[in-house]
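Quick question, first post here. What does this chain look like in 3D?
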Amino acid sequence: MDENDINATKNLPYCNSQPTCEAAQPMCYKERNKAMERLNSKLYVENCYIMKENERLRKKAELLNQENQQLLFQLKQRLSKTKNPNGSNNDNDICSSSSASGKS
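> Answer (accepted):
Ran it through. Tokens below.
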């Protein structure tokens, strides 16, 4: 919602007629009601767009998380295969195996 929308809510029509002018008051109410309905419709559409975008981003985040978990699993497998008999890691083997396979 931008500043124009906020100002639109502040500038909704009010009835300026005297209390004795009963015929003008329903018209002021109708104008104000129409303005509120227009603003409500606009906010509803904006909210639908935000929810749709949120769902799209949630699915993307889920896929990235799955990919991250797979990469972590592969890294752990490589680390376990390159351990020396005394239990320490050999970093040179990891670098050479990743560059030899063309993957980083």
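The chain is about 75% helix and 0% strand.
The radius of gyration is 32 Å.
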